[in-house]
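Hey team,

Filing this mostly as a record. A colleague (T.K.) asked me to run one chain through the structure pipeline before their review meeting, and I want the input and output archived in the tracker in case anyone asks later how it was produced. No errors, nothing strange. Just documentation.

Input sequence:
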Amino acid sequence: MSQGAPGPGGGESLLFLTDEQLRKGIEAMFFAYRGFTADPDRILEDLDYGRAHHRAMHFIHRSPGTTVNNLLSILGVTKQSLNRVLRTLIEDGLVESRIGRVDKRERHLYLTPKGTELERTLSDAQRARMRAAYRSAGPAAVQGFRQVLEAMMDPELRRQYQTLKEGGA
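Output structure:
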């Protein structure tokens, strides 16, 4: 609940957190992220890939045909860094790059069947972990967790997230 939001019974409820409570939340995020990435990291390590490869594959899968520029915007990495990742994924037969029909300068990215299979393996591990955590925490906590995450996003990142969430881009 945010400051000034209506509380139970219709009155105003203010949320005050101590620095210690905030520190615990920050540390919980760090450790949760370690757990969330641990399973895919083990799979990726065997293939000599890193998290950047996983993130690229995730968003290419999420938005087939996305452009390199759109992927750059979503991932927030340098063009050089993304090109290095994409070159590896393309050479290894996981991603296909197609020249744009309208703008020949654009490159549109698609997962190959092999890429789709790897992306599914990586995401299945994360979905299993999230599913178990959500079941344990319950529906109200799931909604609250999403609200907290969205509230932490910068406005431009929230817009990108909303576009993905709504099935666009």
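Quick notes for T.K.: The chain has a mean pLDDT of 89. The chain has seven helices and five strands.
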